[in-house]
């Protein structure tokens, strides 16, 4: 499924399935940005290859237009040796980095005790983080929190 999404775009204008952004996983978004960059720097029968700088500019335009994921474009450009700006992440539901760590572990099915052991914190601290997470994302179960994490590409 991932390989066939290499021409999909966030605005649903891609092909062959015209998938909307919420159906594109982070891996699909990364593949779309990488494939677009690679295609631009290779010569085609109908056009010459773009220089890496021209391809980077075009990729950035695609991200600004909402067709490619900006974070994935930056990852591709960084991997290709381009300088990329440091991205300040907008916090989903105002979750802290630690709450996001806890949420990811909850989504993997770990118990509070297992999360505490992995993060080297107390079980009570895990419980407090979960209470905070539940309040911020307006859920009351681990399953609902996991679903929230999936919807917002936290996992």
Task: Please give a structural write-up.
The chain is mainly α. The chain has two domains: about 5-80, no CATH class; about 90-150, Arc Repressor Mutant, subunit A (Orthogonal Bundle). It is built from seven helices and no strands. Helix 1 packs antiparallel against helix 2. It is elongated, with a radius of gyration of 19 Å. About 25% of the residues are buried. The model has no long low-confidence stretch (mean pLDDT about 90).
List its salient traits.
155 residues, Arc Repressor Mutant, subunit A, 7 helices, 2 domains, mainly alpha, single chain, 54% helix
Tell me the number of strands: 0
Share of residues in helices: 40-55%
Characterize the largest beta sheet: strand count, sense, and whether it forms a barrel.
Answer: none
Alpha plus pi helix count: 7
Strand content: under 5%
Mean pLDDT: 88
Instruction: Summarize the helix and strand pattern as letters.
Output: HHHHHHH
Q: Structural class per helix/strand content?
A: mainly alpha
Outline the low-pLDDT stretches.
none
Instruction: Give me the Rg, rounded.
Output: 19 Å
| N-C termini distance | 18 Å
Shape: elongated
Number of domains in the coordinates?
2
Detail the topology: elements first, then pairings:
Blueprint: H1 26-41, H2 52-64, H3 70-79, H4 97-107, H5 112-119, H6 123-137, H7 142-151
Helix pairs in contact: 1-2, 1-3, 2-3, 4-6, 4-7, 5-6
Summarize the structure.
The protein is mainly alpha-helical and 155 residues long.
